[in-house]
Amino acid sequence: MNQNVKNFIPIANFLGEILGSNTEIILHDLTNYKQSTVHIINSHISGRKIGDPITDLMLDFITTESKGEKHYICNYNSKTADGKLLYSSTFFIRNEKNKIVGALGLNSDYHEFKKSLSFLSSLLPNYVDEKVNTLNHIKENLSSDPQELTINKIDAIINQFDVIPSRMTVDEKTEVMAALNDCGVFNIRGSIQEVANKLHMSEPSIYRYIKKIKTN
To answer: Does the pTM of the predicted model rise above 0.85?
Structure first.
């Protein structure tokens, strides 16, 4: 485990004591995408466990913020693999060179709260509907399945294009490959096969595109 990340274990335990059983405290070592989860408290919240992979949000931030100055992101919505709505915040752990090497996440279970909002919406529809819509804006998917993470990320990038994969030009496929490469998808086991399936291509073709991108 990265030492910078290891230093946060006592803080995670401290937060776990304070926040109680409705908030998951999770520590990620982002030097290992495939098994980034190294410490977790209240794992019943998301169903994840030690050794589970990185999330889609973490992939995005490693790409966009690793050399930036942002230290945390607060009060966004996430969703578990079984559809449970969570209220989340993440603190990014940086090394001496300011590179993001880990993350400390807090995920609070608002399932019961959402049910209460549904009841209140019948009494105060104009006010509560706006709040429910805000809570339903999902920024992060919490899954212990690396294949699901890979598929979600691939779909999100492909959907940015107005052309279905079977009709994409070489340039469009190159753009897709570059975007997938930039957000670290190809570092996840099984991603080559998933990309090949989604783009109706062979795995050797995917490798050729990756090689082309990295040499340009």
So the answer is: no
